[in-house]
Write a structure and sequence with these properties.
single chain, alpha+beta, VC0802-like, 9-stranded mixed beta sheet, 9 strands, globular
């Protein structure tokens, strides 16, 4: 059912103005890792996010296995993305997502919406409340827990709408080929009286 992966990274997210160098290196390594996988993938970055969009059928376990070998990835989030066809349609999609991913729905949840596309008619807080209400109506056995939920349901409103709730650990660290560059940048920053760009 998953149509994409959101790639999370830790260390390379703190590189300031040089961040794009590390993101580009990570995108390159992901492309290299997925070359041996069956299927066609679009790897792209947007607004501080790296996505792997599947453009054909693929083997989920094979792709996750390959992504878990890429240094620099701290988390792999299997994602369902949909076109924006209105909030009611989005609610239907999320309710079906929960049915598919969590057959046992005696769980607590929290909705965490992020509205990167600011012309979306609902703000993040309203999405959280309205989606939570729709989920409780569909699955009264579920309950909300904003502090320590069993399910953290993430909804990102971008050109498309991305839905995910699982984070598969990656190896972390730095992307291959950036270690020396990072060390030089750190050394330069410590001795130069101006910022390194």
């Amino acid at each position: 059912m998953f149509t994409a992966f959101l790639i999370k990274y830790a260390e390379i997210g703190i590189k300031g103005r040089n961040r794009y160098l590390f993101e580009d290196a990570l995108v390159h390594q992901i492309k290299f890792a997925l070359k041996k996988c069956e299927g066609k993938f679009l790897i792209h970055k947007t607004q501080g996010r790296i996505y792997v969009d599947a453009e054909s059928e693929f083997d989920f376990d094979e792709v996750v296995g390959r992504l878990k070998t890429v240094f620099g990835i701290s988390g792999i989030c299997p994602v369902v993305y949909v076109e924006d066809e209105g909030f009611e349609k989005l609610c239907d999609t999320v309710i079906q997502y929960l049915a598919d991913v969590y057959p046992d729905r005696n769980k607590t949840f929290k909705v965490a919406a992020r509205r990167a596309r600011k012309n979306y008619p609902k703000d993040s807080m309203t999405i959280n409340m309205d989606m939570g209400e729709a989920i409780l109506k569909a699955y009264p056995e579920m309950t909300v827990d904003v502090h320590n939920p069993d399910i953290m349901l993430n909804i990102e409103i971008r050109e498309k709408i991305y839905i995910y709730s699982e984070i598969i650990p990656g190896p972390g660290g730095m992307p291959v080929g950036t270690g020396g560059k990072a060390m030089l940048l750190c050394q330069a920053a410590s001795i130069l009286p101006w910022p390194v760009t």
